[in-house]
Write a structure and sequence with these properties.
The relative contact order is 0.06. This protein has 470 residues and is of the alpha/beta class. Strand 8 (177-182) and strand 9 form a beta hairpin. The chain folds into four domains: 2-113, Tetrapyrrole methylase, N-terminal domain (Cobalt-precorrin-4 Transmethylase, domain 1); 117-216, Methyltransferase, Cobalt-precorrin-4 Transmethylase, Domain 2 (2-Layer Sandwich), CATH 3.30.950.10; 219-314, Orthogonal Bundle (Helix Hairpins); 430-469, no CATH class. A five-stranded parallel β-sheet has the order 3-2-4-1-5, sandwiched between helices. The protein is built from 20 helices and ten strands.
Length: 470
């Protein structure tokens, strides 16, 4: 027979009398998961107990440890009745208990006070007030959402404590205060309040927990802030979907500009900071439109996210379904096919669905990709180059006719974008980088002295001198 119970969060005197009688029964073998607990230590002074601390040293993973503990309890129960006692409650964070219950041996579980009870009593919080979230420090969710009071447990090592502190610091306001509880439920328990950045990692231990009750930062905090602004800020309150379009366009181009500055082969942290800032501005536009839609009763940001999630799942059947793909081209082909099926419309032309209002560089790339689907394309980048020369010759032949020159110049640009597509280069970013180089070199020319009055030859000389510096 196996009886499973808990030792509570702290001292032995907190254990109910009925449970104490079970633990002190001389006819039973008492197995404790760890002796490193106040109640377990006191129990060991009263009677003989079998500790499982040695099993932690002999296995590589926690799964192996807990299975070994369950096996030890099962083996002991073959000879005598066994009481398996764990810190806190047997139903909170005890994987060996789960293994024993799954074994189907008819184990009896005696409820006990958990560390969560002790933490809540210490901080004076009722979980029915605003809810409660309980997290394992070894397996924090990603993304980490702290939108309600939260207890983080299993802060058993300094490196785990430091990692948790760094994670929560990213999603909490800078001045948010959290509570570190060491040995909650014991007479010698310690309670320390600190900001996330100020958490002392040396407080880590098997009986260390973290209580977080703060206004959320991160994405949830941004959503809430936007909702407040729509009510309390006169400017935000008077905005409409239509009035915000120009800001979305502006912020999108600023993001494109920041992305175009990123180095291809190495992490550029300064530029990444600019990209982060611009992504935030684009996100603000998304949150703003969602807040307006919510007030109008249409949808909210959760609806937007869920529609996007469902779309990603549908359009990635090779990940979330049983479709096989061999290449990224297969993925793109499936994506386009599923997208057409979702829209439920039969296209009269492959060019249907490419918005005429798109920026010219993007639209050119779109229509070229559509044409390539039926084989109207070059096989390799090198085959595009003669076409560019041909278009340049045609442009040169009509330089005296502005209308014709405009047409032929468009053909040259279109062919150049075809080459960019075959090279896997984004034409928008390539052109932006070229502009940035020109801008930097021209500024360097100006730094060398006034440009007015110089001959073209002298200007070209300045230009060549500027190249190595940009």
């Amino acid at each position: 027979m196996i009886t499973i119970t808990g030792l509570g969060p702290g001292d032995f005197d907190r254990i109910p009398a009925a449970t104490k009688r079970v633990l002190l029964d001389p006819m039973a073998t008492v197995v404790v998961r760890t002796i490193e607990h106040p109640a377990a230590m006191e129990l060991a002074r009263m009677r003989e107990v079998v500790s499982c601390d040695d099993l932690y040293q002999g296995h590589d993973t926690f799964d192996e440890v807990y299975q070994a503990i369950a096996d030890r309890v099962l083996e002991a129960s073959a000879a005598t009745p066994v009481v398996y006692a764990v810190p806190g409650s047997p139903m909170v964070g005890e994987l060996a208990v789960r293994r024993l219950l799954e074994a189907g041996v008819g184990a009896e579980v005696i409820p006990a006070e958990s560390f969560v009870d002790a933490v809540l009593a210490d901080v004076g919080y009722d979980p029915l007030d605003r809810g409660l979230q309980l997290l394992n420090a070894h397996d924090l969710p990603d993304p980490l959402v702290l939108d309600k009071p939260t207890v983080v447990a299993q802060l058993d090592r300094p490196e785990i404590m430091a990692e948790v502190a760094a994670r929560i610091a990213r999603v909490l306001p800078e001045d948010a205060v959290v509570t570190v509880l060491v040995g909650a439920g014991s007479s010698d328990g310690v309670r320390v309040e600190a900001t996330a950045d100020g958490i002392d990692s040396s407080l880590a231990g098997y009986r260390t927990s973290l209580f977080i009750d703060s206004e959320p930062g991160g994405l949830i905090g941004a959503v809430r802030t936007m909702s407040i602004l729509r009510v309390e800020c006169p400017w935000d309150r008077e905005q409409t979907h239509q009035s915000l379009v120009k800001y979305l366009v502006e912020e999108t181009y600023e993001l494109i500009d920041a992305v175009s500055k990123l180095a291809r082969d190495e992490a550029d942290w300064v530029t990444y900071a600019e990209v982060e800032d611009e992504l935030g501005d684009v996100l603000l536009s998304v949150l703003f439109h969602a807040a307006i839609a919510r007030q109008n009763g249409a949808f909210d940001i959760d609806d937007v996210a869920e529609v996007m999630r469902q779309k990603l799942v549908r359009r990635h059947p090779h990940v979330f379904g049983d479709v096989d793909v061999d290449s990224a081209a297969d993925v793109k082909r499936n994506w386009d096919q599923i997208k057409d099926e979702e829209r439920g419309a039969t296209r009269e032309s492959l060019m249907d669905g490419v918005p005429p209002g798109m920026p010219a560089l993007q639209r050119a790339s779109k229509v070229q990709n559509r044409a390539a689907k039926v084989g109207f394309d070059w096989a390799r980048a090198a085959e595009v180059v003669p076409k560019i020369r041909e278009e340049l010759d045609e442009l040169e032949a009509v330089l005296g006719d502005p209308a014709e020159a405009e047409s032929e110049l468009g053909d040259v640009l279109f062919s150049m974008l075809n080459l960019a597509r075959h090279l896997g280069v984004d034409g928008e970013i390539a052109l932006r980088r070229a502009i940035e180089r020109f801008d930097a070199r021209f500024r360097h020319m100006e730094e060398a002295g006034p440009l007015e009055g110089l001959s073209l030859e002298e200007l070209n000389q300045r230009w060549e001198e500027a190249k190595p510096h940009t």
